[in-house]
Write a structure and sequence with these properties.
The chain is mainly alpha-helical. It has helices at residues 2-32, 45-70, 76-99, 103-106, 109-127, 131-136, 139-144. Helix content is 79%, strand content 0%.
Amino acid sequence: MKRLRLYRFLVGTLAIAMALFGLALVADFFLYQRPNSVPAIPTGPVGHYFVAFTGCALLGWAGGLMGAARDPLSSRSVGTATAFVMALMAVIRMVAWVIGDYTVWLGNLPRTEAGVLLLLALALVWLRPTVAETSGLPRHQGREGT
């Protein structure tokens, strides 16, 4: 069950990171609305609207991941969906890097981000509870992390 503890730690850490990042994006939206403010993210009003929307979505995603960290045996799909989305985000970053328009601004950062996202996706798939674990253990044992 060491693998299950690692999975809970990974999912919980991702939940905290997404919640903090989501709160930062929502806060950036409200900070942008002040008179004569200098935007932290270089977009206009429409871009900041989408920044706030993304922040709200990250807060919801963090809630799902927190639930998966608490009871991973009953929420395998959250980790699987997160791994899929992280792989998709890696593909988008690689496409942005290959196109070259973002290279001037970001350099090789999209390649590094893609590698980290793919490693996280692999860890989520590798560590997630198996079907046998989810159907074979009573629910109270899953919450204790045994």
